[in-house]
């Protein structure tokens, strides 16, 4: 990063156009394009391997963004992580999964969680000022309640799968009552993803009919539904036109009678984390992971 920064400064002062390469060449232009389109929240995780590149892009180009960084649940992973948290505004536990120290997320590396110990490490990060907010991800109502029972600093956010086909009604109400912000990943139902097994969100007939009535795209209506529910939404797109389409949802709204239609949609959890059902993970069934919320 130091060298790259010097290059940027040299190029700027010489008026030379700078072209940036990194391990994933999509990432820097992508986060730059998202910022240009007006996005203010970029979602990172150790598991996405996008921390370094997004960090560079932020350092060089971006201001006023909300950066989420998610760690694999292990207090032992927190030490080195503190180092690259200088720019991070929000830190969250990626899920109720824990991996052996120094390994990457994969089923054979999973071990049973120790949420109180990990949360204690997160609270230290918060106390140190390195993270402006701490939170969790993929927590069920039960896991959130259990966390509240032991937390000195309550979680600011729970980032979970949430869209019209998996509305998380119970969790939504719990988060509201406890002042936890619900942030929605896969807000479009992750069309095209290999890990999604279930019905399409953006082709759902109710979503499509609301979109037709409002003369918006099904993706826009899906995201706008999330915003009107009070969530933040984290749509992913590598396509500039769709990046712009997905943020053009703040100068119109879904009227109440059409919002009511969403409650007729059959509910299916699309991202079930089957990988975590493993003899060493502490989860014998999907029911265990989600505490029956499936
Ligand atoms: P692409 O990158 O080609 O735009 P999610 O955010 O729910 O995980 O969904 C991400 C997927 O949805 C990506 O495959 C992305 O493809 C696609 N996508 C993003 N925005 C739209 C949109 N407005 N209409 C249709 N598909 C979209």
From TrEMBL:
Superkingdom, taxonomy of origin: Eukaryota
UniProt domain NADP-dependent oxidoreductase: residue ranges: 101-265
InterPro entries, alphabetized: AKR, Aldo/ket_reductase_CS, NAD(P)_OxRdtase_dom_sf, NADP_OxRdtase_dom
Gene3D superfamilies the record matches: NADP-dependent oxidoreductase domain
PANTHER family associated with the record: ALDO/KETO REDUCTASE
Official protein name in the record: NADP-dependent oxidoreductase domain-containing protein
Organism: Urochloa decumbens
Lineage: Eukaryota, Viridiplantae, Streptophyta, Embryophyta, Tracheophyta
């Amino acid at each position: 990063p130091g060298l790259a920064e010097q290059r940027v400064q040299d190029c700027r002062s010489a008026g030379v156009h700078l072209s940036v390469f990194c391990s994933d060449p999509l990432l820097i232009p992508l986060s730059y394009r998202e910022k240009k389109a007006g996005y203010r929240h970029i979602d990172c995780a150790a598991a996405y391997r996008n921390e370094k590149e997004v960090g560079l892009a932020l350092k060089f180009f971006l201001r006023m963004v909300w950066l989420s960084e998610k760690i694999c649940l292990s207090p032992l992973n927190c030490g080195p992580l503190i180092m690259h948290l200088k720019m991070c505004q929000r830190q969250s536990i990626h899920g109720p999964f824990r991996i052996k120290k120094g390994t990457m997320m994969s089923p054979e590396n999973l071990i049973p969680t120790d949420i109180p110990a990990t949360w204690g490490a997160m609270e230290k990060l918060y106390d140190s000022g390195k993270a402006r907010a701490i939170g969790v991800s993929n927590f069920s109502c039960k896991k959130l309640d259990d966390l509240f029972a032991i937390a000195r600093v309550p979680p600011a956010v729970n980032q979970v799968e949430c869209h019209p086909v998996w509305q998380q009604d119970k969790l939504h109400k719990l988060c509201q009552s406890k002042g936890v912000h619900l942030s929605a990943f896969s807000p479009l139902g992750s069309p095209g993803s290999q890990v999604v097994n279930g019905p399409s969100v953006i082709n759902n007939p109710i979503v499509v009919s609301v979109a037709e009535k409002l003369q918006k795209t099904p993706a826009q209506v899906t995201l706008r539904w999330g915003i009107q529910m009070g969530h933040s939404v984290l749509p992913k797109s590598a396509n500039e036109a769709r990046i712009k389409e997905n943020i053009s949802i703040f100068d119109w709204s879904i009227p109440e009678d059409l919002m009511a239609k969403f409650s007729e949609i059959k509910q299916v959890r699309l991202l079930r984390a089957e990988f975590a059902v493993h003899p060493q993970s502490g989860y014998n069934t999907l029911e265990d992971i989600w505490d029956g919320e499936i």
